[in-house]
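fyi for ur records
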Amino acid sequence: MKLIVGLGNPGRKYERHRHNVGFLAVDKIAEEHGFAPYRKRFRGLVSEGRIGGQRALILKPQTYMNESGQSVGEAARFLKIPEEDIIVLYDEIDLAPGKLKAKAGGGNAGHNGLRSISAHLGNEYIRVRIGVGHPGRKDLVSGYVLHDFAKADAEWLDPLLEAIAKAARPLTSGDLARFTAEVARDLAPGDHPAPASAKKPPSAPKAQKSARSSHPAGERIAKAQSAIAENLKKWMARRGGNDDG
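which gave:
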């Protein structure tokens, strides 16, 4: 069994906070893969289901971010889930909004939720870092992450959460490279039509050149124009020579 943990703070006032993007991500995974309704267990909310053929338990700790390890540690010990089968999704201010990275093990980079989990488990669990951006100054970080996403953020946040949910199969199978590749492919600009304002028509000379080269009549016109230009050049050269004499 895999334990998929989303980090955040409990309560309605925190629902759309940047710090709660882990909750938002696991909710989307549960929805995408038809998990059971959430119920209270392990000092959190849990939902069971399957991703591919893999059994998984989604956990949203309700202990507040700084004590997330209490809930995760209790679930892992009771269910006898090893560290390498635990996946934690959380907000990362050192990644640009919409960026994502995944790796097994590593440090906590000052994230209180990770610090608490590592204190109860160790450091070998899988981390999925979801970029939310940085406010620019260290003293603004707390207010920034404990604040709702802006309405404009929905343009990148909603597609990213959907892409994470769709790519959950390689994530739970441990293929992190494929997981991140599938997310990136799903978000690739080429997969979506560009806005009308972003579409620039070709310049007139290029359009004319393209039309001429793609049609026999156009080729004849181009050759004729070229011959006229060459003859004019020779005539000017001869006239210049006569003036000098």
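The chain has a mean pLDDT of 84. thats all i got for now
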